[in-house]
C-alpha cells in the first residue's frame, strides 16, 4: 500500500505543477473521440447505449491495467509513476478552480468573458444570466465537479487498492483500472447523458450509481472545508429540488455554508430565501472547494499509507 500512497502523491504533485495536459494530448479527450460517434440516431438506442456503457469503460480500464502492469514488470518504480500518471489524468482540480475563479472575477469587469468562460464549467445557456447568476453557476459547478472531477476517480483508486489483495491483482494496476473506469463512465455521461439522447440513458444511469458515494463524500469534505457540518443537514432538506440524485449534495452544502442562493433558472433553487453570491462569497466558495480537494488527496494518502 505504500506504493499506492506514493502514486497518490505523484498524482497530487502533477496536479499542482501541471493542472492538465493540452486537450490534443489528453487520453480522456482520446476516449471522448470513441464516444462521439454514438451521438446520432439509432434504431435501438438503448441496446447500443447499454453495450457501449459496458464495453468502452472496460476498454479504458484494460488499457490502464496493461500500462501499469507492464511498467511494474520493467521496474517497480516505473509502475508507481505510471499509476500516478493514470490517476492524474483521470482527475481534475486546478483547472476547475482556475475556470471558476475566472468566471467570478470576470463578472466584475467583462460579462461577455464570464458567459463564455462558464461554458468550460457548465452546459447551460449563459446568454441571459445576470452577474450574480453567473457567480452562482460558477460556485455550483465547482462544488459539483469536485465530486465528478476528483473525488470519484480518487476514491475508486483507493478503494480498488484496498480490495486488490482479495482478488489477487496488483494493487497499483487495479487502482489505475478503477480510476480509468470511473472517469470513462463519467465522460460518457457528460457527452451523452441527456434526456434527448436515448443512447446515453444507460451511461447516465450507470453514472448515477457510480456517483452516489462520491457526491456524498464530497459534501462531507466541503462541510469540513467550510467548518460547517450543519450545512449537511440543510443540504439534505433541499435534495428534492435538484433533478440529479447526486449533485444536490455538494451544491447544497455550498449554498448552506455560504448562506447564498444557488440557482439554475427554470431547473432548481437551493437556499431560496438567501441572496445570490457576491463576488466575495463566490470567491470564498471556490477557495473552499479547493480546500476540500486538498483534503481528499490527504485522506487518500492516509488511507493508503495505513
UniProtKB/TrEMBL annotation:
Keywords, in A-Z order:
Cell membrane, Cobalamin biosynthesis, Membrane, Transmembrane, Transmembrane helix
- InterPro entries given for it? Cobalamin_biosynth_CobD/CbiB (IPR004485)
What HAMAP family does the entry give? CobD_CbiB
In the UniProt record, does the keyword Cell membrane occur? yes
Membrane-crossing residues? 43-66, 78-97, 154-182
Protein location: Cell membrane
**Tell me, what does this protein do in biology?**
Converts cobyric acid to cobinamide by the addition of aminopropanol on the F carboxylic group.
Q: How does it sit in the membrane?
A: Multi-pass membrane protein
Q: Which organism is it from?
A: Haloarcula pellucida
List the record's Gene Ontology CC terms alphabetically: plasma membrane
Q: Name one GO molecular function term.
A: ABC-type vitamin B12 transporter activity
Q: Which pathway is this protein assigned to?
A: Cofactor biosynthesis; adenosylcobalamin biosynthesis
GO biological process annotations for this chain's record? cobalamin biosynthetic process
Entry keyword annotation includes Transmembrane: yes
Location (main, coarse)? membrane
Please report a single Pfam family linked to this protein. Answer: CobD_Cbib
Protein's name according to its UniProt entry: Probable cobalamin biosynthesis protein CobD
Which family is it part of? Belongs to the CobD/CbiB family.
